[in-house]
User: Fold this.
Amino acid sequence: MVTAAPLRDSHEGFGLVSRTFHWGMALLFVWQFTSAILHAFAEGTVLDAFFWQTHYSVGFTLFVLVLLRGLWGLANIRNRPPHAGPPFERFAATTGQVVLYAMMVVIPPLMVYRAIASGRGFRVYGLQLVAPGEPTATREALAPLATLHIYLAWTLLAFIVIHAGIALYHAYVRRDATLDRMTKGASPLPLNPGSHRY
Ligand code: HEM
Assistant:
């Protein structure tokens, strides 16, 4: 008998909602960093122009999604799957996740605020969310926001690459349940193979 995949998280694995947030946002981040990389290294090309026109809209979408995902995570906090490994690794995994979330929450609004305060207004998917108007801050005062946005965003990319690398290490070196729980929802593999200490 085929049973429907559970929507909510459990100790065995992530539910359909968390997995959809995770992989949907992962795809959007690939798109968003493609636009950023082209802007940094191929500015003025047709490809850059094509991707860059989506940077604000996709960036804003990621911001809305991370807030919703955070709320869903909090609603499921008591029944999420535990981290693998000894206490130090579990602590590092939790800290890494908190830092990832913090960066995803902080990076987009820096530029949304800069666009609005500079008087240019804010437009996503062709929809004028905030109309252009009088600037409420000078270019000089707003410049650090762009610097912070750029540095934090590249740091986020580094964290995402490390995060993906660790997930692959769990799957192909340790051969534990970590990655399965985010792909399949649950896993036949043990969480801590070859150990009863954790
Ligand atoms: C999580 C979402 C976002 C990520 C990961 C991200 C990533 C980046 C990165 C890596 C750069 C640096 C590109 C370079 O070095 O040339 C950048 C630049 C920029 N981003 Fe974003 N971004 C996000 C959201 C947004 C949003 C929502 C806006 C607008 C409201 C925005 C506006 C800009 C602008 C205007 C620049 C160029 C800044 C400058 O060159 O002065 N970004 N972004």
